[in-house]
Amino acid sequence: MRYLQSFNRRLRQLREQGRLSCWDVAEMCGVDEARVISWEATDARQRGYPGVVELLDLCLKTETPLEHLLDLEVQGEGEQLELPGLAFSNSDDLSVALKELEQELKRIQLTDEESELLRRFRRTSTENRRMVFQLLGR
After folding, report:
1. DSSP assignment of 95-109, as one string?
2. Rounded to whole angstroms, how far apart are CA atoms 30 and 32?
3. Percent helix, strand, coil in the chain (nearest 5)?
4. Residue 96: CB partners within 8 Å, gap ≥ 6?
């Protein structure tokens, strides 16, 4: 996991800057809160790592460039980024694989309306967030 060595610290920083809880991140990524907590574990033996889809969800929904969460400076000249689960397609045809990747990106990309709701939600108080979650039945 050489690309994710400092992910736990970077995620925590992202959360704190965006006033997001672990639960907020879990909702964005479609995982449970315990999983997000494991991503931030300081003890490497207890630390978990997100999959590519979860990373993409997090990046798109927080408007954070992927390179801000990964340790890309370890790459050598001409070296390709390798992450577990990066294969979105079983096809050897590049055009088919790219279409499948495009569909996956469209699936997780926020609409303008969703982006605006998320921006407003992040700026609101903790009490207002709780009220929104109560209204949603969570």
Report:
1. HHHHHHHHHHHHHHP
2. 7
3. 60, 0, 40
4. 89
**CA of residue 69 relative to chain centroid, distance:** 9
C-alpha span between 70 and 72 (Å, rounded) = 6
Look up tokens 């574990």; give the residue.
41
Report d(CA 87, CA 81) in Å as an integer. Answer: 12
Note the pTM of the prediction, 2 decimals: 0.55
Lowest mean pLDDT of 51-55, 77-81, 102-106, name the range: 77-81
Distance CA 39, CA 45 (A): 11
Q: How confident is the model at residue 114 (pLDDT cuts 50, 70, 90)?
A: confident
Q: What is the pLDDT of residue 93?
A: 65
CB atoms under 10 Å from CB of 109, counted, come to 13
Residues 6+ apart with CB under 8 A from 20: 14, 62, 122
